[in-house]
Design goal:
Keywords: Hydrolase, Protease, Viral release from host cell. This protein has helices spanning 45-54, 94-105, 158-181, and strands spanning 4-9, 15-17, 21-28, 37-39, 59-62, 65-78, 82-89, 110-122, 128-141. It has three helices and nine strands; from the N terminus they run E-E-E-E-H-E-E-E-H-E-E-H. A hairpin with a 3-residue loop joins strand 2 and strand 3. It has one domain: Alpha-Beta Barrel (Serine Protease, Human Cytomegalovirus Protease, Chain A). Strands 1, 2, 3, 4, 5, 6, 7, 8 and 9 form a nine-stranded mixed β-sheet that branches.
Length: 182
């Protein structure tokens, strides 16, 4: 059983409040990541249902290290957009305190999921389409793979995050138009 990792950059849709509460998207449906993978809507449903039935939770780890849990994901669910998580980084744990300080300083801004692929296919573009995943953990990490999801500082508002996301989309569109004209 191979454990795989998929990274998301925190912020924008991810909020950190009170220095230790975190919520937002750990994965987006339909987004091509740097590993050329695309997670389909519903990919986590079976895994989340099984965890719920057993009374288990998705683990919050530091850098995918199973010996370094740093908090608790109180809520993990699929929405129309992707995998939404809400939890608490534990300030009573040394790595938790470090994670809080690093997020506040802007040194850490990534989320990454640890999972096992249950069902996948390849599309005509050579992308791996992930149809069913067994979710094991969501980690705070240094290097994200899916740039669309980022962690914001405690003072960020959702409007600020939406404006940054819109600006990034417009910048990408402008670059595409410029390259098409060249």
């Amino acid at each position: 059983m191979n454990l795989e990792h998929k990274f998301s950059k925190l912020g924008g849709d991810v909020k950190v409040t009170n220095g230790h509460e975190i919520e937002g998207y750990a994965s987006y449906f339909g987004a091509v990541d740097q590993g050329n993978d695309v997670v389909e809507r519903g990919a986590y449903a079976t895994s989340l249902s099984k965890l719920n039935d057993k009374g288990d939770k998705v683990k919050m780890l530091w850098q995918h290290d199973p010996s370094q849990p740093i908090g608790i994901w109180d809520e993990v669910r699929e929405t129309e957009r992707g995998l939404w998580v809400k939890g608490r980084i534990l300030a009573d744990v040394e790595k938790g305190r470090e994670a809080i300080a690093l997020i506040e300083a802007g040194a850490i801004d990534g989320l990454s999921i640890g999972y096992r692929t249950v069902k996948s296919t390849k599309n005509a573009q050579g992308q791996r389409i992930l149809a069913e995943l067994e979710l094991w953990e969501v980690s705070l990490v240094t290097f994200p793979m899916l740039p669309q999801a980022r962690v914001g500082a405690k003072s960020d508002t959702s409007i600020d995050a939406e404006l940054r996301e819109l600006a990034a989309v417009l910048k990408d569109a402008t670059s595409l138009i410029a390259s098409a004209k060249a």
